[in-house]
Amino acid sequence: MNSLSIFGTSSDSGKSTLTFVIAKILQEHGLSVVPFKAQNVSNNSKVCEDGSEIGIAQYFQAQVVNIEPSYHMNPVLLKIEGNGRSQIIVDGKVLKTTTPRQYYKEIDALKPIVKKNFEYLQSKYDVVVAEGAGSPVELNLMDKDLANTYVATTFNTKIILVADIEKGGVFASIYGTYALLSEQLKKNVIGVVINKFRGDLSLFEEGIQIIEERFNLPVLGVVPYIPFNLGFEDSASLMNYSQVKSNPKLKIAVIKFPKMSNYNDIEPLIANDQVYVDFISGAANLEVYDLVILPGTKSTITDLKWLKKTGLFVALKKRGKAIYGICGGYQMMFDLIVDDKKVENSCEEKESGFGFIEDEIYFQEEKVLKNTSYNILGFEVIGFEIHNGVSKKQQLFYEKDNIKGSFIHGIFDNDNFTNSYFKSLNENYQDFNFQSYKKDKIKSFVDEISERLDVTRILNSVS
Questions:
Q1: CA-CA distance, 286 to 280, in Å (whole number)?
Q2: 157 and 59 share one domain
Q3: Is 48 among the residues known to form the active site?
């Protein structure tokens, strides 16, 4: 059978979303399917049960089709640390930290790794649905493009183009992308999906005719803009989240660090109609919020210094209401953070924290990667750890007065903990079942989009 590549005509066109939707549709028609992304650039990652680290989008896509996530689905992951440094994760483990220039110089060494993992998945599943990255026709980078052209050319995949009409210029983006593809890839394009359409779909009927007749490209569907608010891959996706909440019980501020990571920790809050979430990126009156969350960060000391420059550090230090710290945000709650091995910084660094916890954090070279169940804060929760900073006293979590926190990501996915915590902040808060919400949301989303797609043509392309 043929595998599929999902190419976008631009970044944030909806490739990740269409990947899991099409994978689920194929699965519902009796095929075994697996998601794949050769190379991902994201600070939003998750730990698999085998202790490997992959991009959150591939983890989420695997969950949608009910298969165990593994590093095979995302063999190369780049995490941007800032100051021209990126951490390279290969086969789920940290390989090294390097510069973009050096990474591209060594890109050919990664091609056999991508090939090995794709072939492994091909041997296990009927169809690999391979998500591309950015645009597949960045002409100066074509020979370095692992996620798009390398996979599609090497494995002769059928190709679906995804175009974001919301950005404008949809015709130029489709025509330009298609025209710049190699002849081999052009022959494998089965059609284009117009994504994020707002308004009356009948108004685009002439647009469909133009694309099909003038560009000679089948339109596989016009997909309306549908707020989803799950599986955030990056900050661009996060800022597209939608909240329409008439009578929230809680107002929560999330400090949007410049190097914020693991945005998915906030998904259960955005999904909850009783909770209104604000992302704070500058001086603000934090006392109007019931809870302030210090989320994860890829550069803890850098973001701690940013807090001090903005004045938020002083405001948080004085705050008498609830504060919750997650991973990097949790580490900021300690007396001192020390990076004497230059793990997250280009030179030795240390910075005083909030002093809520009488202990120090030291960065170690080996990253802690765990996905398991934990007994913390009075509850058994499922979550994962992904950090280099460790407490001298090995404090996995902390709780005193208005201060709570832990190294654990995914804490708010646990309904037992979240409902109890939020009721302590407002006695009128009612239980919310995020796990049921997530399951129902995915099903309704896939069902609605599948009605807009030419499923027959997609099925025929892989058979």
A1: 9
A2: yes
A3: no
